[in-house]
Amino acid sequence: TCSSAGTILPAIASSIEIDLFPKRLQNKIPVRLIHALAAVLILVIILGIYQAEARSLIDIVLRCSGYTYGPLVGLYGIGIFTKIQLQHRRIPILCIAAVAISAYLDWNSADLFNGYKIGVELIAVNALTFVALAMVFARKKH
After folding, report:
1. For 114, what's the count of Cα atoms within 13 Å in the CB-facing half-sphere?
2. DSSP alpha helices (H): ranges in the chain?
3. For residue 25, which of 11, 21, 71, 76 is within the disulfide window of CB 3.0 to 4.6 Å?
4. Confidence of residue 1 (pLDDT cuts 50, 70, 90)
5. Contact status, residue 49 vs residue 105, Cβ threshold 8 Å
């Protein structure tokens, strides 16, 4: 939806105001201050990408999506392909546990898998970890 670089900053500023600020603070903080916060956020992201020394931005995006979307893909697969019924209160805990286990496997993959380093398949590892945890802590539908 950001067709040019000039629309990115207002889009991020609007998203910050609407999604992150409580209702009572919305429309009370000056727009210029929110734009300044958004500009600082973008600068921090750019500096983080530079410090990560990644080959490309897409590598970073795929790596981050491996952590964030893995449990969602696992949850979607459970809902579509199984009759497993999860307790709603446990889902966030299972997601955090799956991400933690996947992060451990990712950071230590060279030692654990004889020199093999996990790459873009991290999303599948994370999703399968979530599914395994969900199957252990789920009850089946009648």
Report:
1. 0
2. 5-15, 31-52, 57-68, 70-81, 91-107, 109-112, 122-136
3. 21
4. very low
5. no
Q: Are 137 and 90 in contact (CB under 8 A)?
A: yes
Backbone angle region of 84, left / alpha / beta, with phi > 0 → left and psi within -120 to 50 → alpha: beta
Position 26: which residue type?
Q
DSSP letter at 16 equals I
- Burial grade of 62 (CB within 10 A; 0-12, 13-18, 19 or more): middle
Q: Is 34 exposed, middle or buried (0-12, 13-18, 19+ CB in 10 A)?
A: buried
Is the pLDDT at 140 greater than 70? The verdict is no
Q: Considering the entire predicted model, what is its pTM? A: 0.63
Rounded Cα distance between 11 and 23, Å, is 18
Residue where the block lists tokens 């993959």: 109
